[in-house]
Write a structure and sequence with these properties.
By secondary structure, this protein is mainly alpha-helical. The protein contains 13 helices and no strands. α3 (about 45-75) runs antiparallel to α4 and α10 crosses α13 (about 270-279).
Amino acid sequence: MTNTGYDPAAEGAQMAFDGRMSYGDYLKLDAILTAQAPLSDAHDEMLFIVQHQTSELWMRLAIHELGSAREALARDNFSHAFKTLSRVSRIFEQLNGAWDVLRTMTPSDYTTFRATLGQSSGFQSWQYRLIEFVVGNRNGAMLRPHAHRPEIKALLEAEMARPSLYQVALGALHRGGLALPEALLQRDPSLPWEADAAVEAAWAAVYRDPEAHWALYELAEKLVDFEDYFRRWRFNHVTTVERVIGFKRGTGGTGGVSYLKRMLEVELFPELWHLRTGL
């Protein structure tokens, strides 16, 4: 390639940033790019750290978007909710892709630094737990790993005290003419969600006549889209862990693969999946 001596400044590009905001300043890249501190000399520990840190950044955005979607649904602003829910699905597509990179690490690679992790584990990710709580999968037992961080525990407890995204979606379903029992609409939001026949019947009515309930029909499919990607993320997690450590116990004390496989059985929006059999 011939070097033409091109100077971007000739076309107005800013080249001097003394005392002015630069790209690195705006994105706080000094803080981000110095946050990788491997505890061993193992080559693949950097991969392990970066994969998990970037996943936490994507989860940070997912929480932001899910909160916005919930607020929009509470105001029956379906168009905004649909846009943000679609974005969350794309975020989980990115999270799924990250497992492909991590799977290039072999069992031999991982054993070179696994001991440095101590008791740390993805099981302890408070952002992952918050995503589950926001969408409706709530379990008070999962607060305990965060007891050593009172501010994080308080944040999770506050989330459990407010209606989940799914409960807000059911409110929209009710306001849209598919009446639901008042006791269900006013239920304690901290309790785990259990599939309800009345909810399934209401969603089924939407699917049997989508033209009459188009916004609710699209809402249902946006929720299913999200859970589809979320399930794939969990499945990719299981297969990656099994591929790398087999059936060893996890660093955080869980059963590892056995625990993760049990999580595959959890349904976030059960009625939206169950109704399909009867259509």
